[in-house]
């Protein structure tokens, strides 16, 4: 998560020394997370796509969705518990009009 402390699109606040998030930091993290979530097509959410992609040493910005500078983070990709948990969260995040 430290690597996302300086990102523009998905900037995350880090926990304090006790490992806790303040209400303000939690709200900020939620707002930034929603910037990389596709409510209408959850599996196209960057929050799910990026951690399942390898690092592109060439950093080809034209292929933004195909790589993750942090490398592949979730073993088994779409079958990982991490992917499934966030996908379930996104599906539950749908707004009802």
> With helices defined by DSSP (H or I, 4 residues minimum), what is the helix count?
3
Helix content: 25-40%
N-to-C span: 33 Å
Overall strand count: 0
Beta percentage is under 5%
- What is the structural class? mainly alpha
* Total domains: 2
Provide mean pLDDT, rounded.
78
Spans where pLDDT lies below 50 across 5 or more residues: none
Strand/helix succession: HHH
Q: What would you report as the Rg, rounded to the nearest angstrom?
A: 14 Å
Tell me about the largest β-sheet.
none
Anisotropy-based shape: globular
In short:
The chain has 97 residues and is an all-alpha fold. It is built from 3 helices and no strands. 6% of the residues are buried.
Describe this structure in words.
This protein has two domains: 1-35, no CATH class; 39-97, no CATH class. Helix content is 29%, strand content 0%. It has helices spanning 23-34, 46-49, 81-92. The protein is globular and about 30 Å long. The model has no long low-confidence stretch (mean pLDDT 78).
Please give the structural blueprint.
Blueprint: H1 23-34, H2 46-49, H3 81-92
Highlighted features:
globular, mainly alpha, 97 residues
């Amino acid at each position: 998560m430290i690597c996302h402390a300086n990102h523009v699109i998905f900037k995350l606040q880090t926990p304090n020394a006790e490992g806790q998030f303040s209400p303000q930091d939690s709200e900020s993290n939620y707002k930034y997370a929603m910037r990389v979530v596709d409510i209408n097509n959850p599996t196209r959410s960057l929050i799910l796509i990026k951690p399942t992609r390898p690092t592109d040493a060439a950093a080809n910005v034209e292929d933004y969705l195909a790589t993750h500078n942090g490398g592949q983070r979730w073993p088994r990709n779409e079958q990982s518990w991490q992917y499934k948990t966030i996908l379930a969260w996104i599906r539950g995040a749908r707004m009802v009009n």
